[in-house]
Amino acid sequence: MVSKKQRALTVFLIFILAAAIVGGVFAISYFKGGVTFPWQLAQSESVAEQATEEPPASEPKLVITEKEKKLDEAKKSVEAKVEDEEAVQLETTEEETSDEATEAVSLTNSVKLKYYGKLSVDGSQLVDEKGNPALLMGVSTHGINWFPEFASKDTIKTLRDTWGINVIRLAMYTSDYNGYCVGGQDNQDKLKDIIDEAVAAATENDMYVIIDWHILNDNDPNEYKSEAIQFFGEMVRKYESNDNVIYEICNEPNGDTTWADIRKYANEVIPVIRNVDEDAVILVGTPEWSSDLESPLNRPLNFDNIMYTYHFYAGTHHSAERSELMDALEQELPVFISEYGLVNADGNGDVDIDEADEWLGLIREYGLSSCIWNLSNKDEGSALIDADCSKTADFSIDDVSDEGMRFLEAVANYKNTSVQEGVSVEKESIKTDRQNDTDSEDEISIEETQDIEEEILEESEKEDEAKASKSKTSKKDKESTSNSKSKNKSKNSNR
Predict the structure, then answer these.
(1) For the chain, which terminal residue's Cβ has fewer other Cβ atoms within 10 angstroms, N or C?
(2) 397 C-beta neighbours (distance < 10 Å), count
(3) pLDDT band of 274, cuts 50, 70, 90
(4) Is residue 128 predicted with pLDDT exceeding 80?
(5) Which residues sit opposite 448 in a β-bridge?
């Protein structure tokens, strides 16, 4: 029989073994995480409450914000690069455009036409002091009565520096709006101040300047002959020492004015100039708006250094008028084209490209000196400056009209061609009856010459008047547009 002591020891051992087994199981479960103890459950509930208060989405939200920032920054970077590339491309385009514009300007403005010093007329040719052919190519202002700002010092400097021309013609109207002979003494003084500034600027910039007594609606230069004598007497005394001043004593005689009328006028005005400056070059207008060269061919003036003016407009005057001009040139009449246009005779219309090419080709072939009409921004086809341009100097390509661009191209052609190359042939020095008569009168004084001319004046008047009564197609064309060309509207209407 088992004693109580043994039984108690057995129970104790069983308890110890059970405790060991249970402790081992719990220990293993604890380390493997398979058992949740009561204190762990309370702790989990606390963590769950905290998780409820602070959702776990906060961390992903932060990650998304950072990505958005990075994407935004990347987008801005790309946009900046695109803008930089566009800016570079635009700058390149502008530079290319600028280079193209510069190239266009350089084609017409790279070289200045020559300044020859003192000029004279040898036979039919304008020559320098050494007797070499001289070529003047430039512009005529519109009436300085209307557009005095285009005869300024800055304008003339621009024309010389960037257009390269070597002559400017100052058109001073005599009887139209604020004309010299109708505007009063203050107006006369103002016009003479404009001329004085322009002559000084031309002299400073090695240019020639034509002082133009611009008759038009007064038709016959004899109407204001006394004013012309006074005016040219004052001008020649003021500019006696200038080698660059040329005097145009009557612009465009018209209407019923005959060559006899013009001769009478010229024989009184020219001596006024010659008494002070015996060598100055003088331009004389011809009948029918300076288009009749046959009359001076038949009865030239008996003065040295005289040239006869011829005017044309490409839109109105064509092959017939060119033939008349060429006939006079072939007979060695000294001709100066002191006014021409590439549009219609009324100053309007578009450039007649084909006829302009013909006329400019003729000018180049014969090496004729010329001035194109007109330097202003008047709203008409013959204005060299665009009507929308308010500048009077430093003109860009965009500021120049279609006629202006055509003119600049013509200047460029002359810059690349010497006068000798421009003349088709060297004409032989042939003594005609007219030249012999002139040579025989070289030793006759001015007064005696005038007496002789007066004696034959009556005989020639009948011939001239008969000739003037004939209707010519070209004259009708000019008469139909003379009112427009006179430009005798108010100053405001001309702008």
Answers:
(1) N
(2) 14
(3) very high
(4) yes
(5) none
Angstrom distance (rounded) from CA 365 to CA 329: 11
Task: Give the Cα separation of 170 and 142 in Å (integer).
Answer: 8
CA 120 – CA 243 distance, rounded (Å)? 10
pLDDT at 199: 98
Handedness of CA 255, 458, 232, 337 (dihedral sign): positive
CB atoms within 10 A of CB 494: 20
Element (H, E) at 308: strand 306-313
What 3 state SS string does 4-63 have?
HHHHHHHHHHHHHHHHHHHHHHHHHHHHHCCCCCHHHHHHHHHHHHHHHHCCCCHHHHHH
Instruction: Output the pLDDT for position 175.
Output: 95
Tokens of 20: 């060991």
Check: CB of residue 342 under 8 Å from CB of residue 349. no
> What six digits make up the tokens of 468?
């003037």
CA angle 381, 383, 387 (to 5 degrees): 90
Residues catalogued as catalytic? 252, 339
Biggest alpha carbon–alpha carbon distance for the chain = 196
Q: The domain 120-423+455-485: what is its CATH number?
A: 3.20.20.80
- Residues 301-360: tens digit of each pLDDT: 999 999 999 999 999 999 999 999 999 999 999 999 999 999 999 999 999 999 999 999
Q: How far apart are CA 415 and CA 430, in angstroms?
A: 31
Position 66, amino acid: E
Closest among 475, 446, 375, 352 to 140, alpha carbons compared: 375
- Residue 412: predicted pLDDT: 86
Query: 104 is written with which tokens?
Result: 């266009």
pLDDT at 164 over 80: yes
Cα 414 to Cα 131: distance, rounded to the nearest angstrom: 20
CA dist., res. 445 & res. 129, Å (int): 25
pLDDT tier at 481, thresholds 50, 70, 90: very low
